[in-house]
Amino acid sequence: MIREICQVKAATGRKVDCYFTTGHVKRFDMAPLLKPNCGPVFQPLRDRKTFMSTMTVINGTLAFDVAGNRNEYKCVDIDPETIFQEGVLV
Fold it and tell me: Residue 14 class from Cβ within 10 Å (0-12 exposed, 13-18 middle, 19+ buried)?
């Protein structure tokens, strides 16, 4: 089964509530991905303002539109299966 995310909302800290088309809501913690040595892909998201302002859904998953043009090839996205499996049921 392919699970898709249809909506995302910021929760406390660096957690994101991800609403799946199946009706499930999973809270996914981005903090482990945003440690100081996270590398260049996640580096812009360490800034809280960027994290909040770029959070969106692109192609059925949690994405961060860091380029600002909704280009799926220039965003940071997280596999929805990872979110579903590692996220906490809300």
Answer: middle
* Residues 55, 16 contacting (CB under 8 angstroms): yes
Q: Which backbone phi and psi does 52 adopt, to 5 degrees?
A: -70, -40
Q: CA-CA distance, 51 to 58, in Å (whole number)?
A: 15
DSSP 54: H
In angstroms, the CA 87 to CA 40 distance is: 24
Contact 61, 80 (CB under 8 A): yes
pLDDT, one tens digit per residue, over 6-54 is 999 999 999 999 999 999 999 999 999 999 998 899 999 999 999 999 9
For residue 45 the two structure tokens come to 């998201």
Residue 7 burial (CB count, 10 A): 13
Query: What single DSSP character describes residue 23?
Result: S
Six-digit token string for 72: 């799926």
